[in-house]
DNA sequence: TTGAAGATGTGAGAGGTGCCACGGTTAGGA
DNA sequence: TCCTAACCGTGGCACCTCTCACATCTTCAA
């Protein structure tokens, strides 16, 4: 069951079975529906979460109410780790994009585990480093690429993580509205819609509600660069 | 001497004197001039660096040769830590903005230190978490703020780290050309120049070569939001 | 001192993107 | 089943920002 998902999570990958089971037992589990919020930006809280099933979005809101998504996370990915090591309130709001379930661990319990278990520490460092590298890539994309390019890149990333290959193309059930997709790439819904319509008219993909079928990965990749 | 700078570095802050001195002895030192490059994006290498003196810029180059600066780092700040935990080539080019000196540590030596010294691990995690939070802030700024707003924010950040308060305002010797400042905020040199000229004409600051004097922090802060 | 290269100021034109407006479509609850 | 709210598709216009072009001003080495 969901122990398998946890074992795949980078945080746990270096643990042996016994240690993983023990750590698992000190984590509590929760379950939410699409649209429900796990915590808000600005909340206090120091729990670390791992997605067991479903998808969530990490978002922040600007002063005038506009929203920007930092990431879409799926099974095995963790979040909330910023508040663990960088003291302060939650830096993002986490909302379920689908029904979803989570395992969570408190700051204190995690710290206990870190002592004497350098491999867990190392796993966390690896995870943070990877997130930082990705964040830097996002910055570069915002500076260098236009909206269609960023949309193409986002679709390819989602395909990579959630896509299923079939004979008519790669089916990507991203579960995002175009509004959410727009917030993810930092653009307006209308502009993203036009980019998608353009890709579809070229035969690169087919649009379906909350999902796309990518028919020409090659050209889409070229457009992303 | 430069041991003081190292002791202030977050990486070392949790160590006692004895441990810090020992770690210091396993680090080697180097010195470069303005404009010289420490390593290039794409290079292999797994050394961690700490700036002892001077300033460096972390930059990446897009496919068509345009450049984008991720950060300006000064004394006590570290870089190169991504290649330590996220295997792969250097993700950015590091160039000296002023003459500068560094202490460096190899991957293997660092790993030895991490074993049995959870506080060092914790220091690294804190540092990475803080960097990640900043990267997310940069993303939000790119999405939500216009160029003048980003310029104002960059100036305030530089003032915070490198500024000296005098009776006629805060003197910020950032050592950056307007071209570099533009790359830092992800805009063209011309647009940044016009933003600066506008701020100056309003009496918020005074422009000097490779530095500014901020006379009205209050209004500049308001413009940054 | 004096060129030359680099850095800074400023204007004009073009293009991408955001915002507004509106109609059509889909989904989910009464 | 119907009805309402959310979501999707598309055109038009305004504005910000980029690019290009060029003049002026430093800096620094010969």
TrEMBL record, chains A, B:
The keyword DNA-binding applies. Transmembrane segments: none annotated. Residues 145-218 form the HTH crp-type domain. It holds the Pfam family cNMP_binding. PROSITE patterns: CNMP_BINDING_2 (PS00889), CNMP_BINDING_3 (PS50042), HTH_CRP_2 (PS51063). CDD domains: CAP_ED (cd00038). Keywords: DNA-binding, Transcription, Transcription regulation. It comes from the Bacteria. Coiled coil: none annotated. Residues 11-131 form the Cyclic nucleotide-binding domain. This is Crp/Fnr family transcriptional regulator. It comes from Nocardioides dubius.
């Amino acid at each position: 069951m969901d122990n398998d998902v946890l074992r795949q999570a980078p945080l746990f990958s270096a643990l042996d079975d016994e240690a993983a089971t023990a750590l698992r037992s000190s984590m509590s589990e929760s379950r939410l529906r699409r649209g429900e919020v796990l915590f808000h930006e600005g909340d206090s809280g120091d729990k670390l979460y791992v997605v067991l099933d479903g998808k969530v979005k990490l978002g922040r809101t600007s002063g005038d109410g506009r929203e920007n998504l930092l990431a879409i996370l799926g099974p095995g990915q963790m979040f909330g780790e910023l508040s663990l090591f960088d003291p302060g309130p939650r830096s993002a709001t986490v909302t379920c994009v689908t029904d979803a379930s989570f395992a969570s661990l408190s700051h204190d319990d995690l710290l206990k585990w870190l002592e004497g278990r350098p491999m867990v520490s190392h796993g966390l460092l690896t995870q943070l480093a990877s997130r930082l590298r990705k964040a830097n890539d996002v910055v570069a994309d915002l500076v260098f690429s236009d909206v269609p390019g960023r949309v193409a890149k986002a679709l390819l990333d989602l395909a990579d993580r959630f896509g299923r290959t079939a004979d008519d193309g790669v089916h990507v059930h991203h579960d995002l509205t175009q509004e959410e997709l727009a917030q993810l790439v930092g653009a307006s819904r209308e502009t993203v819609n036009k980019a998608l319509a353009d890709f579809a008219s070229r035969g690169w993909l087919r649009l379906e509600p909350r999902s796309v079928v990518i028919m020409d990965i090659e050209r889409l990749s070229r457009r992303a660069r």
